Amino acid sequence: MPRRFKTQVVWTKNEVTEEDCAQRFMVYTRDLFEAMKSRIPVEKRTLDVFAHTIQQEFKFAADLSPEQAALKAQAAVTKNKTWDCRALRRALLRKMTHVMREEVMGEADDPEKVARFLDVILATHPELLWEAQKAAHAAHAEILDAAELPAEMCCAEPLPASARNVNGVMPAGLNTWEKPFAELLDRDSNQVVTWWHRNEPRQPWSVNVLMPDGRGFFPDFVIGIQGRKTEDGALLADPKLNFQRDDEAPKVLAEHRSYGWVMILFLDGVRWMTVGYDERAKKPVLARAFRLADAAGF
After folding, report:
1. Among candidates 72, 76, 96, which has minimal Cα distance to 85?
2. What gap in Å lies between CA 238 and CA 221, rounded to an integer?
3. How far apart, in Å, are the Cα atoms of 188 and each of 141, 176, 261?
4. How many Å apart are CA 171 and CA 97, to the nearest integer?
5. Residue among 222, 228, 186, 184 at smallest CA distance from 203
6. According to the 3-state scheme, what is the secondary structure of the chain?
7. pLDDT digit of tens for each residue in the chain (298 aa)?
8. Going by DSSP bridges, is the β-strand pair 41-48/53-60 parallel, antiparallel, or unpaired?
9. Degrees to nearest 5, angle at CA 116 with 110 and 120
10. 198 phi, psi to nearest 5 deg
């Protein structure tokens, strides 16, 4: 088993900026055309053949008014709290202006029209901004050696023995869903689990993982898996009670450069389930039953 692990951080000296994010905001011609279509008013005329009157109605294609687009765009820009939303919007407007000029769009010289185009794109394709934010954070992430694991574990009371824990005992303080998972690792009869470690938060030897929004978290377990193609065969696992909470959901998409995706788990009655991500619904969902035999390929 390793005596130290790899942790993932964003260095303050390399702090990601709103301009970095805007430069990674990739807008394609298709998106511009959709934005243009959403901004063109369509006139609908209804003729009453008995009263010989005509009713006129104006609406926007794609049923997206400027007010609706602005509100949805604001929600997209302010969703990630690691950014200054005003500075981010200014940077996005500069990027949008450059893109529209390259596409030889006359509206590029009208700041109001540029802002409206940006609103429509953010409202209809918020994933473009999310991908830009994710890429900006990833570019500034660094992998460092954490401190060595402590040579001894001190506790006021005796701790139960553990067959595969790195210290040979069940750590103190395991909660009601962490303990059953640790017991599952100890019961492994196929020798898939070679060792496991309780990853305490905010210790010099802890493993931090950056989420797509730039925040970090500490998965509960680092597990040595026989045959896993990562450094030290390590798998990061995080059993969750409320995986659908807003502050927990981004963990499903977290990936460590040395150890791979973090496996989020949910105890569904007596059965452990892995948690996946529904791209269409944009939320975490239960994926499949968890088996230790599948851990190497996760």
Report:
1. 76
2. 6
3. 35, 20, 22
4. 56
5. 222
6. CCCCCEEEEECHHHCCCHHHHHHCCCCCHHHHHHHHHHHCEEEEEEEECCCCEEEEEEEEHHHCCHHHHHHHHHHHHHCCCCCCHHHHHHHHHHHHHHHHHHCCCHHHHCHHHHHHHHHHHHHHCHHHHHHHHHHHHHHCEEEEECCCCCCCCCCCCCCCECCCECCCECCCCCCCCHHHHHHHHHCCCCCCEEEEEECCCCCCCCCCEECCCCCEECCCEEEEECCCCCHHHEEEEEEECCCCCCCCHHHHHCEECCCEECEEEEEECCEEEEEEEECCCCEEEEEEECCHHHHHHC
7. 899 999 988 655 556 788 888 888 888 766 776 776 665 454 455 666 565 555 544 444 456 788 888 999 999 898 877 778 999 999 999 999 988 888 888 888 899 989 988 998 898 888 888 888 877 777 777 889 999 999 888 889 999 999 999 999 999 999 999 999 999 999 999 999 999 999 999 999 999 998 877 788 999 999 999 999 999 999 999 999 888 887 788 899 888 989 999 999 999 888 999 999 888 887 899 999 999 999 999 9
8. antiparallel
9. 145
10. -80, 115
Q: Rounded CA gap, 100 and 107, in Å? A: 8
Q: From the CB of residue 94, how many other CB atoms can be counted at a distance below 10 Å?
A: 14
Order of strands, sheet of 234-240, starting from the edge strand that comes earlier in the sequence = 193-198, 221-225, 234-240, 263-268, 271-278, 283-289
Residues 132 and 136: their CA atoms lie apart, in Å, by 6
Q: In the structure encoding, which two tokens stand for residue 8, read together?
A: 């993932």
User: Which of 12, 13, 21, 10 minimizes the C-alpha distance to 87?
Assistant: 21
Which tokens sit at 139? Answer: 């570019």
Amino acid at 10: V
For tokens 């060792």, the residue is 195
Query: How many residues are recorded in the chain?
Result: 298
CB 43 within 8 A of CB 183: no
